[in-house]
Every structure is written in C-alpha cells, then in structure tokens.
Recover the amino acids of this structure.
C-alpha cells in the first residue's frame, strides 16, 4: 500500500494532554511497604519522606509495638500537591526480626503481597472494571541494622524470597552512627551480597527453564 503524508489537522496530537488530564483527575495510588527490625527509624523516615504526619507523635514506640508474631498493618493517607492527588498506602510489618527464632518470619509478608496480586487479578476479571483499586505493593523499603558487619542471614534470606515479587530498596538505617569509612564498607558489602543473590536466582531460573524445555 502506498503511504500518504497528510498535513491537515485531525486532533490526535492532543491525545497525550487528554490522557494527562484524565490521570490527574482520577489521581494516583501508590503502596509502599516498610520492613525491618524495631527501632530503626522506619516511621520517622516515612514522615520525613512524604512531609506528613502519617505516624503521629503519640504513635507507640518500638518497645510498645513489638509483636510475638509478624503482623501486617496498613495506613492510608491522601496527599495533594499542585492539583494532583496521591492515595498513599503504607504497609508496616511490626514484629519482623524481633523474635529469638525468626524462621519464616517473611511468610506473612509474602502472603500479603500475593493476596494483593490475587485481588487485583480478580478485579481485572470482572465485567465492570471502572472502580478497580490497585493495592499491589509497588515498592518495599528494607531497613538494615547499622551493625557494621554487612548483611545478616535474615536480611539475605528475606531479599532472596521477595526480590521477584516486589521492588526492594535496601536502606542502612541510622547510617550517621557509622564512620564514613564504615559506611562505605557496609554499602560495598551489601551491594556485593545483593549481586550474588541476583546471580544465584538467575542461575536457578535458567536451570529450571532448561529442565522444562523452555530454552532451546
């Protein structure tokens, strides 16, 4: 077929503006999960990051919130800025890493993430999808204790279990308690460990696909 070049005005050049206005009118949703041991400053960081009192000053301190088992709690806040509104959901995990035996303490976190994926899939399968909330966890801030000795086995196992389900951002909590040299060594050690985790998981995935005959 012969291609024709038309110079007349049709109006489709305004489509991006229409999509923008529709998105702004509808607003945005973002779900952020915070995971880490008690007393690492998670609530303080969230309040500072979003310039809001999501965690009020009278919010119970870490010593009063330690749970016998890992629980998943969520808080919602509507943030408006420049005519754009964001429905922010913060998912907290009190009790994570606070027990003497932390075996499988990541399982409630995995179950929560999987349940939100399932809820979204079920909502997409319905005929009427006009009011479809998106509560999937988009990002996970993982707080690492500033021990100065790199990642603990719990940190490594947690990231191994979850890195394929959610975007993980590791943070060294209270890094100002470390010297500059120790900060550099900690960051370097953590980065090298994370790279090994990714390589190991990539190798396992490749091996599984070979066994299933997916790679030729």
């Amino acid at each position: 077929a012969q291609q024709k070049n038309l110079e007349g005005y049709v109006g489709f050049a305004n489509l991006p503006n229409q999509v923008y206005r529709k998105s702004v009118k509808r607003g945005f949703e973002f779900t952020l999960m915070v995971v880490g041991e008690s007393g690492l400053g998670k609530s303080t960081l969230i309040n500072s990051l979003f310039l809001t009192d999501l965690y009020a000053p009278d919010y119970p301190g870490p010593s009063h919130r330690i749970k016998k088992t890992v629980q998943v709690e969520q808080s919602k806040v509507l943030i408006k800025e420049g005519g754009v509104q964001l429905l922010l959901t913060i998912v907290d995990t009190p009790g994570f890493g606070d027990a003497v035996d932390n075996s499988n303490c990541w399982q409630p976190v995995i179950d929560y993430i999987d349940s939100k994926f399932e809820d979204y899939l079920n909502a997409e399968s319905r005929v009427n999808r006009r009011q479809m909330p998106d509560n999937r966890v988009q990002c996970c801030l993982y707080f690492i204790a500033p021990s100065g000795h790199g990642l603990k086995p719990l940190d490594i196992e947690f990231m191994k279990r979850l890195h394929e389900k959610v975007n993980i951002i590791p943070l060294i909590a209270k890094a100002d308690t470390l010297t500059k040299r120790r900060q550099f060594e900690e960051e370097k050690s953590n980065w090298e460990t994370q790279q090994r985790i990714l390589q190991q998981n990539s190798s396992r995935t490749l091996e599984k696909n070979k066994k299933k005959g997916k790679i030729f």
About this structure: The mean pLDDT is 78.
